[in-house]
Amino acid sequence: MDFTLLRNIISRYCVGEEIWVDSRTVYIGHKEPPPGAEAYIPQRYPDNRIVSSKYTFWNFIPKNLFEQFRRIANFYFLVIFLVQLIIDTPTSPVTSGLPLFFVITVTAIKQGYEDWLRHKADCSINECPVDVVQQGKVVRTQSHKLRVGDIVVVREDETFPCDLILLSSSRHDGTCYVTTASLDGESSHKTYYAVPDTMAFRTEQEVDSLHATIECEQPQPDLYKFVGRINIYKDKEEPVARPLGAENMLLRGATLKNTQRIYAVAVYTGMETKMALNYQSKSQKRSAVEKSMNAFLIVYLCILISKAVINTVLKYAWQWSPDRDEPWYNHRTENERQRHVVIRAFTDFLAFMVLFNYIIPVSMYVTVEMQKFLGSYFITWDEEMFDEELGEGAQVNTSDLNEELGQVEYVFTDKTGTLTENNMEFIECCVDGNVYIPHAICNGQILSAASSIDMIDSSPGGYRREHEDLFFRALCLCHTVQVKEEETVDGIKRGIHQGRPTSFYISSSPDEVALVEGMKRLGYTYLRLKDNYMEILNKDDEIERFELLHVLNFDSVRRRMSVIVRSSSGEYLLFCKGADSSIFPRVVSGKVEQVKARVEQNAVEGLRTLCVAYRRLTQSEYEEACHHLTEAKLALQDREQRLAQAYDIIERDFVLLGATAVEDRLQEKAADTIESLHKAGMKVWVLTGDKMETAAATCYASKLFRRSTQILELTKKRTEEQSLHDVLFELNRTVLRQRSMSGLSVDCLDFGLIIDGATLSAILKPNQERAGTGNYREIFLEICRNCSAVLCCRMAPLQKAQIVKLIKASKEHPITLAIGDGANDVSMILEAHVGIGIMGKEGRQAARNSDYAIPKFKHLKKMLLVHGHYYYIRIAELVQYFFYKNVCFIFPQFLYQFFCGFSQQPLYDTAYLTLYNISFTSLPILLYSLVEQHVTMETLKRDPSLYRDIAKNSLLRWPVFLYWTCLGVFDAVIFFFGAYFLFDNTTFTSNGQLMTTNTQMMFGNWTFGTLVFTVLVFTVTLKLALDTHHWTWINHFVIWGSLLFYVIFSLLWGGIIWPFLNYQRMYYVFMQMLSSGPAWLSIILLITVSLLPDVIKKVLCRTMCPTATERAQSSRPCLTVEPSTIFMLSQSSSRMSF
C-alpha cells in the first residue's frame, strides 16, 4: 500500500515542519493573483493566538503527573508505595504515600499557579484590539483573529500584533521608527523601510487596491534575518519583483515610535512569529552539585538494596532451624506459609526495601528546589549590584546554577562593552599619513570647529586636499546613523539648544556615532537622509547632496561595510570602512605603509582603529554591481551566501584614504575585578574580535597581563615564519622548562599567551596528514594550563564557543564561565557551564540568552566571590546533611532487625516515619541553606583566596561524603545501643507489664523506638546548630521551634493533650518515657556522646591544619546576632550584622 499521499498530506499540515515546503506564498488582502499569473494554492496557517501555557484544564493532571514521575526519585517512591499496597509490608502505605503526595501536590500547585498566570497573560494579549483593512474600510477585531495576508493598521506607540511587512508609512520617505526593547533590549530607534512601490499609499482604499503576493521563507527564530520578495501585479503587465529583507519586517512585540501610522501585511502569525519561536528554552545545564547528588543517591540505593538482601538472607538462615519459625504476631496464613521459598524470599526482599526506603530522602529534591528558587532573590535584591545609570540590578534567568557560581575555574570574557565601557570617543584620524585631532592645542590655544585640525607632517597640495575631502565625506556617508531633529522623542525633550532644535545621532553601533560626531568636530556635519539623499554640511558651510544607491551592510565575517552613492555631478563612488585586516588586502593604491604604521601605533595605545577606502565606479561597473546585488537580494535560497559573493566581487580595487582611532575606556573597577579573580584561582581568558595590539593594550590596562608577564605569541604572523608544529613545540618547551625551574627558584615567571583566530582554526582543524606529528589540541591545552592569562584576538563568534568547548572537554573538566554583552557573545554564553550577560549598549541578546545578567563587569566580583561562595557552601551542607540525617534515621531500624528475628517489625511509629523528613527536620536545614554565612561578606571580598577552599567541588568529594555517612552510622549505633542498654535487665510487674529495673520505666517496643527517635531528632537538629556560624532570630525560632513542635506533636499523638486521640499503640508512651528521670539523663548523655566526635574533629582540624576559611573565622572578633526583623531583605541589601 502506498502511503506517499497520506504522508504528504500530514507533512503539509504539520505547522513548523520546514520539510514540507521551502517557502510560503502570502496573498495580500487574500486576493487571488490575476489569471495566468500563477496557480492559486491556498495554504493553511495558524491563527494569531499566542499560547505560552503548558497545560489546559483537561490535560493538567495527567500531563503534570507524567512530567513529575519522569524524575527518578519520584518514580522510585511511587514504586515503593505501590509495593506497600500490593504486598503485606511492615509499614503502612501512608508512610510513603503521604510524603510523596505532599511533594507531588506542592509541585503541582506551584506549576499550576504559574501556568494560570501564563493563561491570563495569553488571554490579555490575544484579546487586544487590532485594526484591519477590509474592503477599503478599517475594521476593529481581536488579535487572535488575525490571519496571514491581512492588512493591518498600526498607530504610534502601539505594539505590532504579529510579524508584518511594511507597505506604507505616514512619513513621506516611507520609513518608520521602531523600538525593539521587548525583543532584544535595544531602546534606540531603528529605521524600517516600506516597499518602494507601495510607500506612496496613504488611504485605506489605496492599500486595499493593491494586488500582490509575497514569497518568503518558512518561519525561523532568527530576529535579524528575513528573506523574501514581493510580486506586484499591475494590469496585464509582468509582475514587478522587489526584494524583502529584515529592514522591511516589523516584528511582533516591537513598538511603533514617532510615526503616526503604518499599513503592513501579516506574514507570520501566532506561534510562528519570531518572538514566539524564541520562547523555546535553552538546553538544560546541570551543576556539579546536582551530578554529585545523583551519584550519592546511587550509592545509597546500593546500600538500601544491600541492607534488604542481607536481612532477607539472614532471616531465612535464622529460620532454617526447625525450632524457629516466623513470630506468631506476623499473622501469616497457612497458604502464605506454603508458598514457594523463592516467592516468599522475593516478597520479604520487597518488604525490607519498603522498611529501609527512607534512607533515600524524598523531600531533598523539594528542599533543594526551594533553596535555589528563594536563594536566587538574594542576587536580585543586592543593592551593591544595582546600577544607577541603567536603573537596573542583576537578574537571574535560571536558579538551577546558583552553586555553580562558587565553582568557576575559567572565566571567558569579551572585551568591547564587557571590560570596556563601549562608550566611544573619537580621538584622531589619519589621512595619507597626516594626523587630524579635533580641538587640538596649538600654541596654547584650543582650535575650534572647522579650524580644529592639527596637521602633522602635512604637505600642502591639491592631491592631499582631495583625499582629505574624500576621507571626511566617506565617514559622513558610510554609516547607518539616524538623525533626530524632533524636539520631543518619546515625550522627552532632546536636542534643544538655545531654544531651537538641533540634531543628534542615534545608532545601534556606538562606533558609528563617535565617527560621525568626530567628523562634525572636524568641520563635516552629517545632516539627514531625506528622499534617499544624504546631506552633509562641509567646512565651507555648503550643503552637499549624495544619492544613496546601495548599502552593503556590515557583518562579522567581512568585518566591513560599504555604500554606493552618486554625487551631484553624477559620479558613482563606493566608500568602504572596516577592520585593517579586511581593507588592506583589497587596496591597490594609497599610502599604505604610512597608514599601517599609524594604525599599529594607535592599536598599541589601546585605541580601536578602522580603515577607510574608496573606489570610483564607471557607469558599466555600477550597472554590473546593481545586477549582482539585485540578483542576490531576490534569491529566496542561500540569499546570505549570494550576497556575500556579490559583496566580494564589488568590494575590491580600493584606494586607501586613511584610518580612524576611537577610544573605548576601561570600565570602572574592571582591573580590580580581574585581579581578584586571579587571586581566587581562576584563569581569565579574553576573547575578542579586535586586532592583537588593541586587545593587548586593554589586557595590560586591566591587569590581565602585568609588565613582568612573559608574552607568548601564537599568531598567523609567527606561523608564517615557522611551521605551526615548530611554534607549538617551542612554546611548550618554554613553559615546561620554566615550570621545572620554578621548583628550584623562588621567583616564578608569569606567562601570558596571545593567539589569533587564524592560528586557532589551524589548531582545531582535523588533519589526517599530521597524525604522526602529535596532537596539536593537547599541546595547545598544555601551554594554556601553564599560562595565567590568555588573549584570543580576531575571534569569530563561533570560534569563541569552540574555545569554551575545548576547555570544557579537557581532561580536568573544569567549570567554565562566559561573560559578554553582545549578540556575538551568545554562542560562548550558551556553551559555558555558566553564562553571564552584561546589560550593555549592544542590545540585550547576551542578557536574554544568559543564565545571569549584571549591569557592569565589576559586579562579577561579588557575584562569584560572595554569592557564589555562599550558595555553594549552603547547598553542599544541605545535601550532605540530608544523607547524614537519613542514615541516622534508618540504620537503627536495620540494627533492630537483628533483635526481632528479622520479622520486618518497624522501630518507629507510622507518624514518626511520615513526618521525620517533612516536618521535624526540614525547616532548620532549609533556613540554614538560605542565610548561613560562615564568614562575612567583607572578608570574602577582601580576601579572594578563600574561594580556593571550595574549588573543585571540595565539600562534595567522596572523602567528605564518606565522613558524613560514617558519622551518621556512628550516631545511629550510639542511639540504638545506648537505648538498648538502658532497657537492659527488664522484669514483669504484678499486672503483667514489662518494667526496667534500673529506670522503673514501662518497657515496650514503641517506648524503645520513641526513645531512639527522640535522641535522633534532637541530635541531628543540634548538629546543624553547631554548624551554624551566622545566627539570626529566625534561626533561633526555627531550630528551637522544630524541637518544640516535635515534643508537642508527640504529646498530642500520645493522647495527653487531646485524650480522644488515644491511638492504641502510642497511647501514653511519650509521657511515660518523659516521666522517668534516668530516661532524661540517658537522652542528654546519648546526644552529647553523638555530637562529641564531630566537635573533637573540628577542634583538632582547626588547631593542627586550619584552612584559609577557618583562619578567617578565627580572626573574626566575635559573632553577633542580627537584630533585623526580616532576614532576607537585610541580607539582600548587604547590611547584615556579623
From TrEMBL:
Cofactor list: Mg(2+)
GO molecular function: ATP binding; ATP hydrolysis activity; ATPase-coupled intramembrane lipid transporter activity; magnesium ion binding
Subcellular location: Cell membrane; Early endosome; Endoplasmic reticulum membrane; Membrane
EC number(s) recorded for this UniProt protein: 7.6.2.1
Residue ranges crossing the lipid bilayer per the database entry: 295-318, 349-368, 911-931, 961-983, 1003-1025, 1037-1061, 1067-1092
Positions of Mg(2+) binding: D414, T416, D821, D825
Catalytic residue list: D414
Domain P-type ATPase N-terminal span(s) in chain numbering: 42-96
GO BP, one annotated term: positive regulation of myotube differentiation
Catalytic activity from the UniProt record: a 1,2-diacyl-sn-glycero-3-phospho-L-serine(out) + ATP + H2O = a 1,2-diacyl-sn-glycero-3-phospho-L-serine(in) + ADP + phosphate + H(+); ATP + H2O + phospholipidSide 1 = ADP + phosphate + phospholipidSide 2; a 1,2-diacyl-sn-glycero-3-phosphoethanolamine(out) + ATP + H2O = a 1,2-diacyl-sn-glycero-3-phosphoethanolamine(in) + ADP + phosphate + H(+)
Start and end residues of each P-type ATPase C-terminal domain: 847-1107
One Pfam short name: PhoLip_ATPase_C
Gene Ontology cellular-component terms listed: early endosome; endoplasmic reticulum membrane; plasma membrane; recycling endosome
InterPro entries referenced in this protein's UniProt entry, alphabetically: ATPase_P-typ_cyto_dom_N (IPR023299), ATPase_P-typ_P_site (IPR018303), ATPase_P-typ_TM_dom_sf (IPR023298), ATPase_P-typ_transduc_dom_A_sf (IPR008250), ATPase_P-type_domA (IPR059000), HAD-like_sf (IPR036412), HAD_sf (IPR023214), P-type_ATPase_IV (IPR006539)
Keywords, comma-separated and alphabetical: ATP-binding, Cell membrane, Endoplasmic reticulum, Endosome, Lipid transport, Magnesium, Membrane, Metal-binding, Nucleotide-binding, Phosphoprotein, Translocase, Transmembrane, Transmembrane helix, Transport
Membrane topology: Multi-pass membrane protein
Family: Belongs to the cation transport ATPase (P-type) (TC 3.A.3) family. Type IV subfamily.
Subunit structure: Component of a P4-ATPase flippase complex which consists of a catalytic alpha subunit ATP11A and an accessory beta subunit TMEM30A.
Protein name, UniProt field: Phospholipid-transporting ATPase
Organism: Dicentrarchus labrax (European seabass)
Lineage of producing organism: Eukaryota, Metazoa, Chordata, Craniata, Vertebrata
